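re: the backbone from monday

yeah here it is again, tokenized this time
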């Protein structure tokens, strides 16, 4: 079994299994050896399938996570509807025992309120984190995991405990290996140490249930 080194991307990797590919319910077509997350993105709430078919997809053995679920105050979808769909996905993540990958834009208070109300046992991972160190600390206090892509605040990356850290490409064209090299430089640790840390985190969060 290949452990993915990139926990969130929108492109099929050159080698199946190297990344967790994010799909919308209507675009999920698994390839042999691949890993996936499937979710209802706040950008596509009115387009995605929220019926039982969506729940069936989440049980697929190649689907490792629910998401991107999210809250985004810059899109047209009303925030109350976004919250409803987010909570729906968060509860499904608990039921099927898989982590939740989160897209968040300008809705920190709403997300923290949901976490306090739902008391999730499964990991909530904020993908593509770009906030400052103070915001990273706030999320960490509430039990979140943080995933870093091409753009981020270096001090935020430095303060994340190893066991709460992930690396991703998201929509970046930069090779994931280069993102690991940069992150290792910022954290001032050997590259192989970072690789082993992320491998262990991925194995623990996405595969051990």
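seq for it, each position gets an aa:
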């Amino acid at each position: 079994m290949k452990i993915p080194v990139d926990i969130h991307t929108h492109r099929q990797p050159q080698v199946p299994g190297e990344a967790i590919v994010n799909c919308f319910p209507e675009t999920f077509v698994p390839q042999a050896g691949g890993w996936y997350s499937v979710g209802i993105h706040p950008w596509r709430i009115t387009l995605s399938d929220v019926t039982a078919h969506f729940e069936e997809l989440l049980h697929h053995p190649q689907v490792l996570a629910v998401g991107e679920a999210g809250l985004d105050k810059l899109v047209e979808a009303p925030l109350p509807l976004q919250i409803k769909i987010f909570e729906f996905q968060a509860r499904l993540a608990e039921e099927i025992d898989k982590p939740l990958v989160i897209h968040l834009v300008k809705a920190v208070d709403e997300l923290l309120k949901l976490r306090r109300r739902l008391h999730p046992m499964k990991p909530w991972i904020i993908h593509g984190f770009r906030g400052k160190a103070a915001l990273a600390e706030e999320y960490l206090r509430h039990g979140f995991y943080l995933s870093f892509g091409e753009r981020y605040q270096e001090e935020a990356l430095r303060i994340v405990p190893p066991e709460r850290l992930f690396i991703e490409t998201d929509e970046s064209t930069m090779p994931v290996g280069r993102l690991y090299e940069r992150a290792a430089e910022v954290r001032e640790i050997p590259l192989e140490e970072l690789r082993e840390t992320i491998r262990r985190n991925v194995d623990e969060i996405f595969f051990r249930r």
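The chain has seven helices and eight strands. The chain has one domain: 6-207.
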